[in-house]
Amino acid sequence: LKQGIPAGILNMVFAYALMGVLVGLIAAAFYMALRMGFASAMVLVASVIIDVIVAIAFMSIFRIGVSANIGFAVLGAAVLSVIFNTMMLHKLKQNSFDPANKKATNAEVAEITRTQLFRPFTIFAVAAAIALLIFSIVAFGPAGSAVLAVAISLASIFVTSLYINPTLWQMVFVRKVREKRKPMPEIESEEA
């Protein structure tokens, strides 16, 4: 096996990483439910699950073996997914209350939000990739699978956060557009 580590330990590290993702996801969903409502919490859970599954799928396509590096990449993917989803929801809420978008549909507001977040997500993803790659190499040694796993997970999260998750958010996001009340006409009283 890679780096002389027994398979049982590698599987245990991967299982602990997935358990960490699950515990963190439950905590993030609880926070989101308290702050934004149950529907937002469920979209957050669905988004993170989709992001992690896509990251694992890409890692399996590239035939990266199960190792501590993969566990680290999955954990990083989940954390990055929660961060990107929180940024997406905040910007979506901000755009929905913008007077310029008053007559826009949820799909149009989601598209505006996606285009506004493309540059910040790109900068954040590049910075996170550099930080995670450095930590991965320092913590686990210069393993080629670590670099590839982290790069694949970050790329998959970047793509799903910009092209799949806005669609999920637009389905559950409820815009509360208040129109100004028109003054009530005065009722003329009939005096006899």
Structure description:
The protein is mainly alpha-helical and 192 residues long. 76% of the residues lie in helices and 0% in strands. It has six helices and no strands. It is elongated, with a radius of gyration of 22 Å. The model has no long low-confidence stretch (mean pLDDT 76).
Task: Using brief descriptors, characterize the structure shown.
single chain; 192 residues; mainly alpha; 6 helices
SSE succession? HHHHHH
Residue stretches low in confidence (pLDDT < 50, at least 5 long) are none
What composes the largest sheet? none
The residue fraction in helices comes out at over 70%
Structural class: mainly alpha
Form type: elongated
Report the β-strand fraction as a percent range: under 5%
Average pLDDT taken over every residue = 76
First and last CA, distance: 102 Å
Q: How many separate helices?
A: 6
How many strands in all?
0
CA radius of gyration is: 22 Å
Topology diagram in text:
Layout: H1 7-36, H2 38-61, H3 68-96, H4 106-140, H5 144-163, H6 165-172
